[in-house]
Amino acid sequence: xxxxxxxxxxxxxxxxxxxxxxxxxxxxxxxxxxxxxxxxxxxxxxxxxxxxxxxxxxxxxxxxxxxxxxxxxxxxxx
Length: 78
Hints:
Elements: H1 11-24, H2 28-40, H3 47-60, H4 67-75
Helix pairs in contact: 1-2
């Protein structure tokens, strides 16, 4: 594992990190690592929630796109 040293941490940032560490039951070092991991990790996607959101938005749109409408639209084009 690598080690880094942080300098000139603003007092409010240090205090907020200490408070978060206390709330999460972690050391200050572990809290900083958790914050860094969240900042650089790819966002996790809840696929089921995303699909439900898409379905909700589609249901709110006027009309429905179906195979017949697609065929009608394509017949109108050269």
